[in-house]
């Protein structure tokens, strides 16, 4: 759908990490705050410079209050592939949009940002002086200006082949910075309690943003962790080492509802829609085993059965079954429009998009890859509930082979360690030659 031409144009300066995750994050947050992408805005690839059409500056600011994939946003005043094109573009920018920020009572400064090239101070001053045709009437204040303007130059992505002249030059008014500092302040290294599989802070924020989590939403993680302490040389967990204490550490304890111990393969909730988002990282069977509780009848032949009063040994819980249960649970308990965000481990040589689990009540929103090794990766899958769940029996056919092309994930652990073994053997062979 095309956006109105009256929308303002903004320039996003993106971080150069988790490249596949950036577009779904920005699209989700824009949708959350009342904006949307147009089709021609999905071609930026690895570039750190994105031009967006956004309905208002308020939406732009709200976007930056949440994003960890973007560094800054600017109201775009001009753009060109050469200085001359930039100046021409700036001269065509409506004067009435400039005046509120350039009047005589205002203070300002101009900054230079270059991507993939370093400029000398002399070169920077020359670029600033070339903008003297703009109607600046205020005073320069380098320490605490009311308004900050930036010249941003893009010299491409190849550090080994830096062009003499930039591919693109932008000029804009700085609006706000993103939340990149949260990645450091919430770093797992500083966290009081961590488990064996605690999620990287940056990816955690990305997952929440993909899930369109907003204030007062109820969010559920059905695979929150084993509760085991994983600090080096630490065998036992301390009394204050728990999820609630972590939230207390960050001043977020008031958002804690509760934690329960249950088997994800067995329904333990009353029928109903409880959650605005389900965000989780299921076990892959590598650092944490994938097991479920079973009944006496389910114990394989040849294994001695336990007394009736005793809970039997846990049984294998195949990844395909786990994802079938997870999608069914999400379809049943999410509100309409609620989102499921989860990690899907894959063996890269065999992966196809058809392997991604699906459900009639859930629509696939995004599918982003994070490489784990040369032969394995995990994909962050985001789905949105678009249809009311009726009953579990209606979806039992989804367990048939026809609907389970992702059954190959059941051997992910064996393939993962097979690849590790081959890599070690190859390294040992190379060291002996």
From TrEMBL:
The keyword Coiled coil does not apply. It is an enzyme of class 2 (transferase). Signal peptide: none annotated. Coiled coil: none annotated. Keywords: Acetylation, Cytoplasm, Methyltransferase, RNA-binding, S-adenosyl-L-methionine, Transferase, tRNA processing, tRNA-binding. SUPFAM superfamilies: S-adenosyl-L-methionine-dependent methyltransferases. Its EC number is 2.1.1.214. It is found in: Cytoplasm. InterPro entries: DNA_methylase_N6_adenine_CS, SAM-dependent_MTases_sf, TRMT11, TRMT11_N. Pfam families: Tmrp11_N. Residues 9-180 form the tRNA (guanine(10)-N(2))-methyltransferase TRMT11 N-terminal domain. Belongs to the class I-like SAM-binding methyltransferase superfamily. TRM11 methyltransferase family. PANTHER family: RNA METHYLASE-RELATED, TRNA (GUANINE(10)-N2)-METHYLTRANSFERASE HOMOLOG. This is tRNA (guanine(10)-N(2))-methyltransferase.
């Amino acid at each position: 759908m095309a956006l109105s031409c009256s929308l303002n144009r903004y320039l996003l300066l993106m971080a150069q990490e988790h490249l596949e995750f950036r577009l779904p994050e920005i699209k989700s947050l824009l949708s959350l705050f009342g904006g949307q992408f147009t089709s021609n805005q999905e071609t930026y690839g690895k570039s750190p410079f994105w031009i967006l059409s956004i309905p208002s500056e308020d939406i732009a600011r709200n976007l930056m209050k949440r994003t960890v994939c973007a560094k800054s946003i600017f109201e775009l005043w001009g753009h060109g592939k050469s200085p001359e094109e930039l100046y021409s573009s700036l001269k065509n920018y409506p004067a009435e949009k400039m005046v509120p920020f350039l009047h005589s009572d205002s203070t300002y400064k101009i900054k230079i940002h270059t991507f993939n090239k370093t400029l000398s101070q002399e070169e920077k001053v020359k670029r600033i002086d070339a903008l003297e045709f703009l109607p600046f009437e205020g005073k320069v204040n380098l320490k605490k200006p009311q308004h900050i303007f930036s010249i941003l130059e893009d010299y491409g992505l190849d550090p080994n082949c830096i062009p003499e002249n930039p591919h693109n030059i932008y000029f804009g008014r700085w609006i706000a910075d993103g939340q990149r500092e949260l990645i450091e302040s919430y770093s797992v290294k500083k966290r009081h309690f961590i488990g064996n599989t605690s999620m990287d802070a940056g990816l955690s924020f990305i997952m929440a943003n993909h899930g369109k989590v907003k204030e007062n939403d109820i969010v559920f993680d059905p695979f929150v962790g084993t509760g085991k302490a994983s600090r080096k040389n630490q065998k036992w967990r301390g009394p204050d080492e728990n999820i609630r204490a972590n939230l207390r550490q960050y001043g977020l304890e008031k958002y804690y509802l509760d934690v329960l111990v249950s088997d994800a393969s067995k329904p333990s909730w009353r029928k109903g829609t409880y959650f605005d988002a389900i965000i989780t990282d299921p076990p892959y069977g590598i650092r944490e085993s994938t097991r479920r509780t079973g009944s006496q009848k389910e114990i394989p032949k040849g294994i001695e059965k336990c007394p009736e009063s005793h809970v039997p040994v846990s049984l294998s819980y195949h990844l395909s079954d786990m994802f079938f249960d997870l999608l069914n649970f999400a379809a049943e308990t999410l509100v309409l429009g609620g989102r499921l965000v989860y990690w899907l481990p894959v063996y890269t040589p065999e992966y196809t998009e058809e392997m991604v689990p699906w459900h009639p009540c859930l629509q696939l929103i995004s599918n982003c890859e994070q490489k784990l090794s040369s032969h394995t990766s995990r994909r962050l899958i985001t789905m949105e509930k678009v249809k009311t769940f009726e009953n579990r029996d209606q979806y039992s056919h989804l367990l048939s082979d026809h609907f389970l092309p992702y059954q190959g994930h059941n051997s992910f652990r064996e393939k993962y360690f097979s690849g590790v073994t081959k890599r070690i053997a190859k390294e040992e062979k190379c060291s002996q030659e």
